[in-house]
Write a structure and sequence with these properties.
Largest interface: A-B, 23 and 26 residues
Distance between the termini of chain A: 39 Å
Number of strands of chain A: 11
Distance between the termini of chain B: 36 Å
Strand content of chain A: over 45%
Structural class of chain B: mainly beta
Order of helices and strands of chain A: EEEEEEEEEEE
Number of helices of chain A: 0
Order of helices and strands of chain B: EEEEEEEEEEE
Shape of chain B: globular
Largest sheet of chain A: 6 strands, mixed
Shape of chain A: globular
Oligomer: heterodimer
Radius of gyration of chain A: 13 Å
Helix content of chain A: under 10%
Number of strands of chain B: 11
Radius of gyration of chain B: 13 Å
Chain lengths: 112, 113
């Protein structure tokens, strides 16, 4: 119940295309859903986050879509660029809790 | 932009030895965390620390591990009697008043020989 399942494991997208990464969770007590971006040799960097009171949040080319009834959320990267090539992690935490539960990660490659 | 800094970037230690990983969280943050990432696997929570005590810990964080905030700026993770399976990237994170978001350092790669 504490798991967050992320797919796909790896993704290759052409420059200018849309990258979509999906996550699913079981624990309905989760109420904070961040996405982290990690480049090789670096720590995870917060990209964008959402709470379940909204169905979508957009920041620049990055959008989170959230489906509370399906217990799923996804990251969309519009106009994907080679600089977006990185590993992306979804995560979740419960209200008032500090622990982040991470998905397995998606290695995204944007071909020029 | 303020950042979490971790030292050393790479630590090589013999099995059975003690190791201390160091972190300097963002200066006005109140919550401090350690996570680890075994090569090719997901990031796993170890422990959170608030108001000079452990506030939450995972089943991974057993008696082999301890954390300390020895002064106003550093936050350390000590691993006693290291095992081969402790080899991983260890990330420190910190957050401000509202617990989230958490900001991560670039990690310490721990290699146990």
């Amino acid at each position: 119940q504490q798991q967050v399942k992320q797919s796909p494991q790896s993704l290759i997208v052409q420059k200018g295309g849309i990258s979509i990464i999906n996550c699913a969770y079981e624990n309905t007590a989760f109420d904070y859903f961040p996405w982290y971006q990690q480049f090789p040799g670096k720590g995870p960097a917060l990209l964008i986050a959402i709470r379940p009171d909204v169905s979508e949040k957009k920041e620049g080319r990055f959008t989170i879509s959230f489906n509370k009834s399906a217990k799923q959320f996804s990251l969309h990267i519009m106009d994907s660029q080679p600089g977006d090539s990185a590993t992306y992690f979804c995560a979740a935490s419960k209200a008032g809790a500090q622990k982040l539960v991470f998905g397995q990660g998606t290695r995204l490659t944007i071909n020029p | 932009e303020p950042e979490v800094t971790q030292t050393p970037s790479h630590q090589v230690t013999q099995m059975g030895q003690e190791v201390i990983l160091r972190c300097v969280p963002i200066s006005n943050h109140l919550y401090f965390y350690w996570y680890r990432q075994i090569l090719g696997q997901k990031v796993e929570f170890l422990v959170s620390f608030y108001n000079n005590e452990i506030s939450e810990k995972s089943e991974i964080f057993d008696d082999q591990f301890s954390v300390e905030r020895p002064d106003g700026s550093n936050f350390t993770l000590k691993i006693r009697s290291t095992k081969l399976e402790d080899s991983a990237m260890y990330f420190c994170a910190s957050s401000g008043q509202g617990v989230q978001p958490q900001h991560f350092g670039d990690g310490t790669r721990l290699s146990i020989l």
